[in-house]
Every structure is written in C-alpha cells, then in structure tokens.
Give the backbone structure.
Amino acid sequence: MLPETVAAAFPLPDQAQWRSAVDKVLKGADFEKRLVSQSADGIRIAPLYPAAPAGLRPMRAATGRWQVAARLDHPSPAAARDLALADLEGGAETLVLSFAGARAARGYGLVAEDVAALDTALDGVMLDLIRLRLDPAPAGERNARLVAELIARRDIDPAKADVDFGLDPIGVFASHGALSAAWPELGRRLATLIGELRGRGFSGPFLTVDTRPYHEAGASEAQELGAAMATALAYLRALEAGGMALDLARDAISFTLVADTDEFMTIAKFRAARLLWERVQQACGLAPKPMALHAETAWRSLTRRDPWVNQLRATIASFSAGIGGADSLTVLPFTAALGLADAFARRVARNTQLILLEEANLWRVADPAAGAGGFEALTQGLCEQGWSKLQDLEREAADGLPGMIAALANGHVQQGLARQRALRAKAIATRREPITGTSEFPNLGETSVSVLAVPPVADGSEAVATETGLMTEALPSVRLAEAFEALRDQADAATTRRGTRPTVFLATLGSIADFTARAGFARNLFEAGGLAAPSGDGFASGGATDLAALVTAFETSGARLACLCGSDAGYAGEAIAVAQALQAKGASVWLAGRPGDLESALNQAGVSAFIFAGCDVIEALRSAHAIAAP
C-alpha cells in the first residue's frame, strides 16, 4: 500500500470526472452510440463499470485445477487407443468417448459395437485413475451399458470409476430430429437405467445437459442458458415421475456448455449458468449444490481457411472457460473443421490448457471475475435474460410434454435460433463481427495442414422415432465462416480450371499516400473471397494519375473487374475519366468508398458498385465472382 502522503498526491477520480473527460474527447458525439454496445441478447455493455459489491458467488464444487479432457473419436479402436494413450501421457486427465453417431463426432467417432471393441480402444488406460465422459448419441443407452460392462470385465470397483455417462435424449432430439420413444416411456427408461447403474455402484453423473446443438445452430448466450435450464427441469421431472428422489435426480445431472471467442460473454455465461442452476434447485425445494460443468471450445468458431488462427480462438475460449469456472474442458483441435485431427493437433489442444494451468496459473483463484463491475453486470444480465428464456420455453409445455421438448417439437426453438442465426450472419457478412484469417486478413498463400486420412463412418443420424416417438426439424450445425469459405472454394476451383487465380485490378488514383488506405481495404475484401487483388506503386505522374499507364496495366492484367481506389479528392477530380476509360476497354468498374454526392455522376461514367466499411461483403464478393470468374 502506498504511504498516505504519496496516495494523497494521486486522488482517485470519480465517475463524473471520467465522464466529463470522455465528453470532451467525444466533442458532442453521442456517448451511447460511440462507446456503448449490446450483446446478442440486448444486454448493455458499457465502457466502464464501478466495482461491484459482494454478492452471490458462482462457486465450483471443489477449488483447484480444471481437468484437461481429450476426445476419443477415431473410428478404429486400435488407432483410438494409441491416440488416447498419447493424450494421457501428454497431460490429459479425462477421455471423452465420442462414439460413431454422436453429433460431436462430426462424421467420425469410435466404432465399438461390443465390449471387446471398447476394451481394445481403452487397452492400457487405467480406468480407475482417469475420468471418462460420453458424448450424447442416439445409441446413448447402449454406449452407457458398454462402459459399465467394460468396467465390470476389468474387475474395477464402480465406486472408484469416475464416469459421466452422457445420456441426453433431449439433446439428441434437438440434433438428430428424432425421439426414440414417447416422453413418459423414455423418462421411465432413463430412471430405470440410472437406477441400474447406481445399483452397480456408479455415482454418475448419468444425464448430460448438452448445449452444443443450440450453440451450433446460432444460439445467443441467453438462449443457450435457457435451453440448458429447461432441459434440466425436464430431466428432473422425468426422473421424479420415475420414482427417483428429487435430490438424487439432481445429482444425476451434469452440464456441457460452449466456450466461445467472446471472452467477457463466455466468462459471464459460465458464471450465470451456475447461479441459474442454484435458482432452479431452490425453486424445486432443494438445498443447492454446485453444478458439474464441462466445457468445450466452440465448433461454430472454427475455420477451414488459415486454420492456425483457430489456436488463438481456442486459447481465448480456454482462458474464458477457466476463469468462468469450468470443472473440465475439451479444446477442439485447430484442424477439426478439416477432418480428424492427427497427433500434433491433439497435442496443441492439450498444451493450450496446460500452459494456462501450469504457466499462467489460472486455477489458483477461485473466481477471478468476482467484484469486477463489468463481469458482475454481464453475469447478472445473463441471469435475467436466461431466466426469461427458460420461462419462455416452459410456456410451450403441452400434451404431457415438458416445455423444452414441446418447444422443439412445435418448432419454437428452431424459429428462435433461425432469427438469431440470421442476425449473426448479417454481422458476419458486413464484417461487424470479423473472422480473422477468413473475412479479415485472409492469406491466399496459406500452407495446408495435415489431418488423418480416415473416411467418415455412418453417423447414426438415420435414427428414426418409433410409432410413439416424436419427429422434428433437426437443428443445423453451422460454422460462422462457411459463407466466406464457399467463396474461397469457388475461387480455387476457378483457379484450377483457368490456370490462374481470378484477379481484380485495383485502379489506384494519385500517389501512394492517396490510395494506400482504400487499396488495402479493397485488397482485403476481395482476397476474403479468394480473388487476387495486387497493387503496386500506382500510376502517379506530375501530381495526377497517368491514365494511359493505368489503362495499359489493366489490359495487361487480364482482369474483367477494376476497382477504383483513391482519396475523396482524387475521386472528385479523376474518377469519372478513369471509369470511362476502363469501361471503354471492357472493364466492369467498381469504387472503394462511399460515393457521396458523386454517386449519380459515377454511375453515369460506368461505376456499377461501391464497396465500403459496413457493406454486405458476401453479396459483393458473389457479384465480383460472377464478373471475375464467370
């Protein structure tokens, strides 16, 4: 602590003084529009918050390290074993069994139809020393029994086996579109199976509330939280109806949330999830216990282009999950969107966590966000919005179906997620939500990365409901970068077909200082769609643009599309003449920047489109492709 005499020399400014200084810098600009943003759920995000008073703390069941989890998803049991042993030797403490048919297996997944195959996949793995998690799958009950049989075969005390059995029929209903039996019957089967596993000595958890299907379909943070709580309530009621005491039903449930690349919102979401679960338990008349919370980094944020950037995304997501209080974490390999990860990508995924644990020491503080005004405000906002989404889902209950299942069956969930997905797609297309390496700073010369040469397996998505089951529209799994990746694929195909990459000619006006900013903007935009847009030192001559040299360069380039790049003054003085000259040579002419008062004159001169910050880049690139590589 500073001595009082020194501290007195540096008086602490208050909020009013800070606001006064900010207003001077804004010079009359609207504070709310310039410095305040909103989350996807409309939560106000301010630039500065006061310290928050002590309040409810979203604590874990036990302090300490989170567990490093690695996926076991290779179809071959023998190959899966080798990868799993390397993961465990490299620092993993949990294995996530992703059987073929699981949504999370992405078309791959362990093929183990019997206990012998599972035994091969886990050969050499000391099951009494590690934790096992099962990814939800249509064959979840069979998979759970296989694991129980393997532990019995190895003569391991089930009480010493740490297994999360991953049963999640509601999540499977959302992701695959089919419920295998009528809900009351399915609830009875769940209660029976859990009772059977408990009778063998397993302590669970047995059911998993998995929010990945909703997140991949575009869910906001509050939508994800609302779906989680509504699903958990459906399971509590089903198990209680099956004769299970409510406290035992609660103990049977774990949660899987998605850690995304928005650091503040991910931390707040994880903290809010714990507080919401406490509130649900209180409403059920239970003395609250902390939730068992597993995290996985976001599938929807992965990119196929410049996949090395996925390592940065994974680091942010892992940091956020750790700060937010995850009990265990799976980091998706940075090549996961391209295929089945090899040993190198798996090692990078493990080490991402190990560095945060062992070198950054994130686990040594129980709740690092506690008392931080921004995090506390976002946490509270998500609690309120998440609770509202829960109530919205609960109101859909009908015909003996709990709210979450009814909302999936009648399309209420799908419609809400589609609206949110459309809003995010617009933000992606206009680059208000940039994707580094894809929509911003693309790398046309990127080197390829390696994945395992393993063909996809039958994914089990053909699972069909029985006569008494339900069918609904399965939630889509959408990565944010897909629209840009499709354009890059289209450009690559044209490059192969033509022998050269489709090119946009940047018609730079004036000196380098005049055109650099807009030429850089245009190049970045066109390359995001796979179109080359080289620029050199320009065509300046005698304080103006050498029109003849520019036109000759265009003809030499072989391009069909030319984009004018210069300053506002350059556009006013030269753009019309340059556009007319380029159009006379057969060019389709665009202009980088907003046209302002010149729009009509530029259109008459042949400028057919304008690209600028905030324009729909996807639509612009589709039009550019039609011109540059028909």
DSSP finds 23 helices and 18 strands in the chain. The radius of gyration is 28 Å. The CA atoms of residues 495 and 501 lie 4 Å apart. Confidence is low (pLDDT under 50) at residues 460-465.
